[in-house]
Amino acid sequence: MKDEGRNPTGSFKDRASSVVVARAREIGAEIVVTASTGNAGAALAGMSAAIGQKAIIFAPKTAPQAKIAQLLVYGAKVILVDGNYDSAFDLTIEAANEFGWYCRNTGYNPFTAEGKKTAALEIWEQICLNLPNDSRPLNVFVSVGDGNIISGIHKGFKDLLALGWLKTMPRIFGIQSDKSAAVANAYFAGNETIIPISARTIADSISVDLPRDGVRAVRAAVETSGAYITVSDEEIIAGIAEIGKYGIFAEPAGSTAFVGLKKALATKVITAEDPVVVINTGNGLKDVRAAMMSVHEAPVIEPTMASLKKFLEKNK
Known about the structure:
Layout: E1 2-3, H1 14-27, E2 31-35, H2 39-51, E3 54-60, H3 65-73, E4 77-81, H4 85-99, E5 102-103, H5 111-116, H6 118-126, E6 139-143, H7 148-163, E7 171-177, H8 182-189, H9 214-222, E8 227-231, H10 233-244, H11 252-266, E9 276-280, H12 288-293, H13 305-314
Parallel strand pairs: 1-9, 2-3, 2-5, 3-4, 6-7, 6-9, 7-8
């Protein structure tokens, strides 16, 4: 597993925001703005705070409180929208055009993909270079919302292949909740037509009605002989606790990729002999409510040895 929860603000989105903030400084942008369900906004707010850049974040009012707290603590101007991610996205672009702000929006600003492709460069360095020459292709599992992470990873691998540094193109698998599967639906239909849906998955980071980078997200799987896999929200929640047993605390979107791997094995899309990397896109502290749904609540006992012994006897 590649644990992106260890990044500075706790998610994969730090890769894109670091590049966008650098670009904003390069062009002299006064304000950088983005729409976000939390992670992209936190990444932008954190990176902006590090260099004194002004940032404005539009987020759905339903975003997890832990993510909203990050935005506020980093000092960004936070505006909650009485709507979903897609409505926040559209408002952000309108505002950027109206006020001359530099828009970071995923799938809209091309520098986001340049940042996200760095994960592919690291996977090549950390894993691909160490695979034997006769190895089967690497299989990369990543959750998909608006499609920019998977397309960015695909771009990174294509760059490496063009340079002649990558021997075999990895197979890329996009995993979506069946309650937010606009990209997967296009893949299953055998085309690149992204039809908007009404997303309602608990995995807020990948809950998107209209994926803005959907076409390239479909191609990432098709052009690498990968595939799309959908999983249920119940499987996603259960996966959080299962990943935890390996020492990784994942938010629901990270669990989504792991559950997709399990489904690929169960349906023989891949075998146990295939090399695999699963990307956890965010830290579990981003969504404590979802994490608590994956486990049993801790018991409460009196602070006495008698109470402890009674509890231990009852729960052998």
